[in-house]
């Protein structure tokens, strides 16, 4: 049985791989049978398999009455957008969204990312200086507002909505220990808020992605339904800040507890891109991501996964798979040659469209943070940091640090 409260996934991943191999049968919250793919090679094959779907119409138990209507994870299955679409529908939606995330478009965002990073480092410094013990929460003052500001500016979301959007997106798509009533209420409020944002952009279109998606829908009404519009906005908002928030936080934790690795990059013996790659592999921002469904009984990693089974992609497990990354896969090593081949951004047709933006934000944030505060350290033992209450998101709830200004 999967613990809805989640926690650090690595010990559980290691135990499941030792007991079951590349694929394990699991019981999802609510007693729903499922599976998780844990091995790197098996996951890579599964993510790109032509007989694996994302559309929940292939999730048999979701429609035959065996799963209650208030099942908390139903929000993941029923969401509409490119992340739950297949084939032509997926290509159509991805083509509309992908224009904003090309390498050229992302590079145009670099000056704004650098400007925001500098402003937020000032905020972090002020927060630490104002604290009686010189401690500031790096997640609150730096790792969260950077990607949240960037994705909201990209989507044309007014600043007054941003705090509530983070709370709701975390409640709906990260926290997995919520009650059914809490989950359903958060889904309804998030959809309503997205509708309000879309209505604002419809009335006052601008040079933002939401306005562009609305224009595409109105120019050719069958290209983007209202549900697809709201679903696409929700996906970009959540994926555009929650994962990068965790990536930056996990990288800072790793570097603070592996000072030898931090020295390598500060001495230009490795790059900040190497840090991001190894963090994605060693302690990725997403642990087990729902859902994919075999469209027939499928053998994956030597295990038969029945048709219609909801399958989780075990990204953190694959990242420490010794068969692929070597016998020292549990060690954080920014010179590791296989790190750049991790699957944390996915693989195949559903590879994360926002990966270039996440990399830009993370490398910029880490370089500027440790250049300004090279002696920055955790304010307490890393093992005592509270972990996210989720088996989907993988990070800590707070990251108190001391800047140790020189």
Automatic annotation (TrEMBL):
Keyword Metal-binding in record: yes
Keywords assigned by UniProt, alphabetized: Heme, Iron, Metal-binding, Monooxygenase, Oxidoreductase
KW Heme (keyword) present: yes
A matching Pfam family: p450
InterPro entries reported in the protein's UniProt record: Cyt_P450 (IPR001128), Cyt_P450_B (IPR002397), Cyt_P450_CS (IPR017972), Cyt_P450_sf (IPR036396)
SUPFAM superfamilies (alphabetical): Cytochrome P450
Recorded family membership: Belongs to the cytochrome P450 family.
Annotated protein name in UniProt: Cytochrome P450
Organism: Streptomyces erythrochromogenes
Lineage: Bacteria, Bacillati, Actinomycetota, Actinomycetes, Kitasatosporales
